[in-house]
Amino acid sequence: MTASLYPLLYEDLVRAALKEDLGLAGDLTTEACVPADARATALFRARKAGVVAGIEPALSAFRLLDPSLSITVKAPDGSRVNPGDTIAVVQGAARPILSGERVALNLLGRLCGIATETRSLVDRIEGTRATIVCTRKTTPGLRALEKYAVRVGGGGNHRYGLDDAVLIKDNHLVAAGGVRAAVTNARTRAGHMVKVEVEVDTLDQLAELLALKVDAVLLDNMDPPTLRKAVEMVAGRMVTEASGGVTPETIRAIAETGVDLISLGWLTHSVKNFDIGLDFEQG
């Protein structure tokens, strides 16, 4: 089942992107050289193999500029496409299609890139119990869309923000005065619906944490043998998450240690843009 994305989560963002691109004078090039009555049929085409994500936010750029445009989606989110495949078709007045092209391609290329990379990683760990999850290392303003793209690619989401879970990291431990103090304070402050996770760097820290009541442990920058030992120590008493130093080449070995989650910041902050073209049909 494809992940859902409500228009309210992206309409303001797309409006802002269009305003940024159009500026105070509008699309000078298009208005200068394209007649107002010119018509066009434009095709979004994949230029490589991958997974589609973000087609509706991308197409909303055209709908905001001209609601009368006819838009047909050929490959909805979650579809696997090959080079040359048509993802969507936009028909109508040429001017708004040209003016919305870059905003639409920017959004679609980034989100398809995230979904495609996520799918590749999910395929690499097939048969293990691990789930690929993203982090809060997202592009400012694009978090909802980027996390959505991860779900479309078959992954899961970590926290959406600072307000939906407690994640006690190394600097929190220093500021709070240690693992026990930090966890005790968190349990006192957080409500009964709030999950608590603690980051540990060593098995000694993990042993201390196991004596406390937490929901998950983030096993930071541990090699596979250490991760395997950590999973054995936890013995199902909390969710185990591996993070740090994860690459496509190492992810299978990490997943085979038995961890529940593998989190990757680069999945959203450094993913390669997916190559998509918007081509006008001749004639």
TrEMBL record:
Pathway annotation: Cofactor biosynthesis; NAD(+) biosynthesis; nicotinate D-ribonucleotide from quinolinate: step 1/1
GO biological process, alphabetically ordered: NAD+ biosynthetic process; quinolinate catabolic process
Enzyme Commission number(s) of this protein: 2.4.2.19
A GO CC term assigned to this protein in UniProt: cytoplasm
Keyword Thylakoid: no
GO molecular function, one term: nicotinate-nucleotide diphosphorylase (carboxylating) activity
Keyword tags: Glycosyltransferase, Pyridine nucleotide biosynthesis, Transferase
Name of a matching Pfam family: QRPTase_N
Gene3D superfamilies in alphabetical order: Aldolase class I (3.20.20.70), Quinolinate phosphoribosyl transferase, N-terminal domain (3.90.1170.20)
Superkingdom as given in the UniProt entry: Bacteria
Catalytic activity as recorded in UniProt: nicotinate beta-D-ribonucleotide + CO2 + diphosphate = quinolinate + 5-phospho-alpha-D-ribose 1-diphosphate + 2 H(+)
The Quinolinate phosphoribosyl transferase N-terminal domain, residue ranges: 27-112
UniProt domain Quinolinate phosphoribosyl transferase C-terminal: residue ranges: 114-279
Subunit comment: Hexamer formed by 3 homodimers.
Record family assignment: Belongs to the NadC/ModD family.
Described purpose of this protein according to its UniProt entry: Involved in the catabolism of quinolinic acid (QA).
Protein name according to UniProt: Probable nicotinate-nucleotide pyrophosphorylase [carboxylating]
The species this protein was found in: Aerophototrophica crusticola
